[in-house]
Structure formats: C-alpha cells, structure tokens
Amino acid sequence: MIALTGTPRPALPQLRLMGIAVPIAVLLALVPSFANSYQTLLLAYGLIIAIAGLGFNLLLGYTGLLSFGHSAYFGTGAYAVAFMAQDLGVRSMEAYILCGLALSAIVSAVFGFICVRHTRIFFGILTLALSQVLWSLALKLFWITGGSDGLRVPRPTLLGGMLTYTGGGFPRFISYYYYYVLVLFVVCVLVMWMIVHSPFGKALQAIRDNETRAAFLGLRVRRFRWVAFLISGVYTGLAGVLWVPLNGLTTPDILYWPFSGEIVFLTLLGGFRNFTGPIVGGIVFTFLKTYAVATTEYWQILLGVVLVVLVLVLPTGIVGALAQLIGRLWPQRAD
User: Fold this and answer.
1) In the chain, fewer beta carbons within 10 Å around the N or the C end?
2) Is 92 helix (H, G, I), strand (E, B) or coil?
3) What is the pTM (predicted TM-score) of this model?
4) Which positions, given as ranges, span the membrane (predicted)?
5) Are 244 and 155 in contact, with CB atoms under 8 Å apart?
C-alpha cells in the first residue's frame, strides 16, 4: 500500500518538460522517414497501448484504485469497430471512434457505478469479475461475435473518406495510419495532462491520500472516483478502437484477464508515479513483448522474469529510475 501513496508528478518543471516533449514529438513524426514499415507498425501499436496506459494510470496513480478489468473497455471499443464493419458495412474511422467512445463510456459508467463503492482488493476483484463476464459473452455468443475465430475488420477510410485503402499498399496504409494515431495520441496526452493538473485531478490525489479527510472537506468521494473511472474507461476504449485496424481481427482474447494484466504490467514498467511512465511503458512493453515472442516460445516466463526484476530493482519504473538518476547527477535540475 505504500507504493500507492506516491504523488504522480513530472520529473522536471513544466517549461523544461515542454523543451523535452516537443523534440520527442518531432522525432516521432519523423519515424516513418527512416524506419521500415514493421518498426513503424510496432511504434503505432506502442502509442495505442500508451493511450490505454494513460487511462489506466488515472485510476492507479492518481486515484489509488488498482483495476484488473481494463480489458473490458479495450474490448468494448474493439468489438464496436468489428460490429460496425461486419453488420453495418461502415468503413469510416471517425465513425468507429465516435461509436467506440460512446459504448466504452456506457460500459465504464455502469461498471464504475458498481465498483467505486469499494476500494483496495474488493475493487480489483469486482473489476476482474465484470470483465470476465464480457469475455464469457464474447466467447459463448459465437453466432454474434465469431467466438474464438473472431471478426475480421478491413482497413478503414481516414479523414472522412479522403484516404482509402481498399486494395494493397500496406506500407502506405501503415505510414498514414501511424500519423493518424500519433495526432490522437498527442491530443490524449494533452487532455490527460490538463485533467491531472486541474482541480479535479488534485481532488483525486487528495482522495487517494486520505479519503476521510477529503470527505470532511466536502468532496463527494464516490462521484469523483466514478468520473475518474469513466474517463479511464473511455481512454482505454479509444485504444481498443485504434488497435483493431492494425490487427485486422477482433477476438475474445482482448477481453480476457491476461490482457488486463498486460496493461498493469506496462504501467508498472514505465512507472505509475510519473505522468510519462505509462507512455514509456506502453512503447517499451510493445517492443519487449514482440521480440520476446519472436525469440522464444517461453516468452511468458521471460516477461514474468522482467516483471520480478522490475519490482526488485526498479520499483519506481523506468521513468522513476531516470528521474532519480538525474537527481543524483544534477541535483539542481531535479524537481
């Protein structure tokens, strides 16, 4: 429980942080010009998973609630895309996003209303149980969801049909879709930054640190937690929507509890006490998992070893360790 009391904060002052963030954004924009299609594809996956990590960390890092069921909202967004493509013949990415966000908001609002009445392990078990209900439905209702075979999703049109990819040209699709994801990723980062540094975000941290004192100050604890849960679910649902066109297939696996575990893993990998931790964790985890799967059939064991070493050696995650290193080498530059 001690780990959950750290205050998520940037490792550097805001102006200095912007001086770092802008060059990184420019570098990300230049990736397709010097990286091959496969590397660009992996980075796009990483940015998408980082969006899910940002949403998850609003609960874990800023609200102090550990969820084991975020696969439910990721899967809701993904299946919204699959159903629209399969049953309605919709090919617009913007329509996918609108519908996916709406359904993710509904599911997260209902699940959040049930879960935020409890905290600690009870909250985690409830989120896990509810996500497994959706997984069971997706697996058993195979005449609707395709069961374990899943539903295939063709490449969508982008920017209101201005860019279409009905035929070949996969590298071209990856390049343009990468920029599409990158723009949404930047928007999500900016919005989340404003949320966590707003009075609402400060209230969440106050509730996390001392729920009783926050209630005495007049904060409606359950309402604040529910809103945080809703925002977190919408972020994760958006990640699910963006993930489907790259994968081309939606299966019940993304609703299963190990996928929720991966979201927890990447957040711990990057560091949940820092705003940028889930971003770094999402990108690093994507490449780590990809190369682990390609290297050995026992990749789950490899990732498990990485997690154990991470907890023992880098309890604050990659970003937290870098911040501590900067603080030791250049104390005047540490926050």
Assistant:
1) N
2) strand
3) 0.88
4) 15-35, 41-60, 95-114, 121-144, 177-196, 226-244, 264-288, 300-326
5) no
